[in-house]
Amino acid sequence: MTISDRTETFFGKRVEDYQGGDVAGGPGIVHRLCLDYDDDKSMGVLLEEYLSKIDKSALDALILGPWSEPHDTGPDDAFEVLIAHAAELKSLKALFVGDMTFEDCEISWIIQGNYEALLQAFPQLEVLRIRGATSLQLPAFSHAALRELVIESGGLPREISEGLAQSTLPSLEHLELWLGTDEYGFDGDVELLRGVLQKLRTPKLRHLGLRDSEIADEVAAWLATEGWVAELDTLDLSLGTLGDEGAKALLASPHVVKLKRLDLSHHYIGAPVQAQLRAAIPGVVLDDPQEADDGHRYVAVGE
């Protein structure tokens, strides 16, 4: 499976594409800036044009979609434009960088950028969503306002998790990491993830997603032992390789059964254990069951 659909809603608003020209839309619209694959224009140039045509003081959400040749260049030129206009963008609270499908660029090919200066320039940012982890730079940072952090990847590099394990996000309510596979860059382990949660877990955290993981059974076995899991509303272990081993650990946990929602979609759990999960956890989601291929399990989103 690859990402085949662009985002339709973001920050509670309907998404509309902007590729140049007049800006259409209203208060319930968030724009996704898009370029064709072989466009001579850069995302920075398109963003500068877009900002010149809107009320910058009212902009609260923005999506950077496909830029030209995203497998070769990242969004740093767009970041420079945002930072240059930061004083005029005081209302910007939500940013999604890399909203593109496999037709634009496979997730593991997307070249990302350096978020250090961007996060410093926008202390009011509440939502940051990043797709792609190749060349991603997210060193340890402190941010008082960030409520939601999502990093989608086919393989999350160790240095990103290490940076998060040294970061301070006191307002964090929603954390979602797509771990992926070692074939596409994942080189972490449960101990590293434990460090991330030890640092980023706050009393406000209600949604934890450790998705698209080739070590889903190990992640489930670890989380089953953590008492703080009972304080979550949602635990999302979907898109990965979870099988009976990890599912049974979740079943045996007195903490997991207290969840309002346990999303295990795209899984390798046998029918008997699925039945046990449904009986024990009313909020469990078991969509998209998979069958192993010659003993091999695959995450939903890799390349």
Question: Nutshell version of this structure?
Answer:
With 303 residues, this protein is α/β, with parallel strands linked by helices. Helix content is 23%, strand content 17%. It starts with 8 loop residues before the first strand and ends in an 18-residue tail after the last strand.
What report would you give on this structure?
This protein has helices at about 45-50, 75-85, 115-120, 160-165, 190-200, 215-225, 245-250, 270-280; strands at about 10, 15-20, 30-35, 60-65, 95, 125-130, 150, 175-180, 205-215, 235, 260-265, 285. The longest helix has 11 residues, at about 190-200. By secondary structure, it is an alpha/beta fold. The chain has eight helices and twelve strands. It has a twelve-stranded mixed β-sheet, covered by helices on one side. The protein has one domain (about 10-285): Alpha-Beta Horseshoe (Leucine-rich repeat, LRR (right-handed beta-alpha superhelix)), CATH 3.80.10.10. About 25% of the residues lie in helices and about 15% in strands. Helix 6 packs parallel to helix 7.
